Structure formats: structure tokens, C-alpha cells
Amino acid sequence: METGFGQVDAEYDFLRARRRAVLSRLATWLRREPDDVSEILPFDEVVDALGRTGERRLGLRVIDLDSIVGSVDRTHDFDRHFRPRNQRTRERWERLARAQRRGETIPPIDVYRVGGLHFVRDGHHRVSVAHALGLRSIEARVTEVTTKLAPDGVVHRGDLIIKDLRRVFLERVPLTGAALDSIVVRDPWSYAELSETVEAWGFRLMQHENRYLDRATVARRWWSEEFLPVVRMLRQADLIGDRTDAEAYLQLACQRYRLMRTHRWDDEVVARLRADPGN
Description:
By secondary structure, the protein is an alpha/beta fold. The protein is 51% helix and 15% strand. The chain has a six-stranded mixed sheet, with helices on both faces.
């Protein structure tokens, strides 16, 4: 309940926000959730994982508070919901809370926009106070940062591993459109294994055709001449199961490599298999 005294109410606002931050961390510990569940997202790590391509100023906008998920340089002072994590911010925090309660004009914050996510450059305390007072939106000067990959699915810091490895995969295997959409794996390290598989396939293709092929050409031909036919056969044999198409292909490719390395495949064996494929 509010007392009507600005100083006292601002102090209570801060204490409530701090208590909620502590209770949130305690709940995370009790549920045995990863530590990064309550962590604010670091801007530099996000754009590095997604692959920064450029930026442009969008000017003054009104943005949803819930879309603000990260910070440029204050990741240790606030939690994911911009609740203060220590007493260091208290004096400035309460001063802004008093001004907000008095209806004073609060300067807009500065943010970077990546997809639908926002990262605070300046104005962390203003965001924190706005959350504590139950506001839904805030005025901000927005700079949009474009990236190779969209930030879809980035919720926690651990999600950046998947994005980073997928970005590296696309640098090695530059697929686009439907081909790109079809390559999804749940274990981020599978992207590295798939990169090696595609590059090995491309090397054998270049040897067979006795000419150099660039990465884009190898990627395009691998998808149409190798990936799609293999996935089609796996579907016909009902061998996909609960895996994605890319996961099923990768497992089969690894099994094929294991067979090649552990069995004898000389001309005699191949001839016998062709003559009697039932064996």
C-alpha cells in the first residue's frame, strides 16, 4: 500500500523489487534450473552469435517493456526482469522512482533493437523503475542492429551456443530459403558434425568431377543430390522417428562412415554385393 509520502513509497518500491529478485533466484535454485534463466542477456554476445551485419537509427519509439531482455554493459546490476541485484543502485533508483511518482518528465532510454528484442545502452534504472511501478511500455531512442541470423528462440544465455554454431555452419555450408529451413538439429554440436559431413561430401564431389566448386555450389548440390534423396528414403522406410530430418540424415551418414572405416570394401566385395544384394 502507498503511504502518500514520495520518499517512503520510493524506498518501499526499491525494497519490493530487491525482494522479488532474491525470491526469483531462490525459486530458480529450488527448481534446479540453469543459472542463466534469471540472467540478463549481454548484447555483445548476442550479436556475435547471430553475426552482426549493420545498423541504422530508427529514432524515438515507444517499446514494450517486456521486449527489453538485455544490456550493453550492466548485466550484473539487474536480473532478467531488471530488478536490482544489489544496493549499489539504490540511491539513483529511488530518486527516479520519486520523480516518476511525481509525474515528472523522464528522458527516453537508449536501446539497440535486434529482431524483436531490445538491449539497453542507457537507462537501466529507468527501465527497472518502470517495471516496478507496473508500466507496460517506455519511450526509447532505438538503433536497429541487423544480423545474419534472426534472434528467434534466444531466451537464455545458453541459447546463444545454438545460434553461434548454426551461424558457423552457414558460413561453411551457405544454404538459403527452404534448404536452410530444413536443417534443424537440437544438439548444437551436431551443426559442427554436419558441417564436416557436407565438406567431406563436397570434396569427394570435386574429386569425381575433377574441378573446383565453391561453398555455395557444394551446399546447393549436397542438399538436392544427397540430403533430400536420403531423407526421402528414410521416410519411406519409416526411420525418421522423433528426430528432425537433419538429425536422421546425420546419424545415417555417421553410420555409413563407420562402416567404411571398419569393413573391407574392395572391388571383390562390391562385385559380390552387386551380384547378390540380398546378402
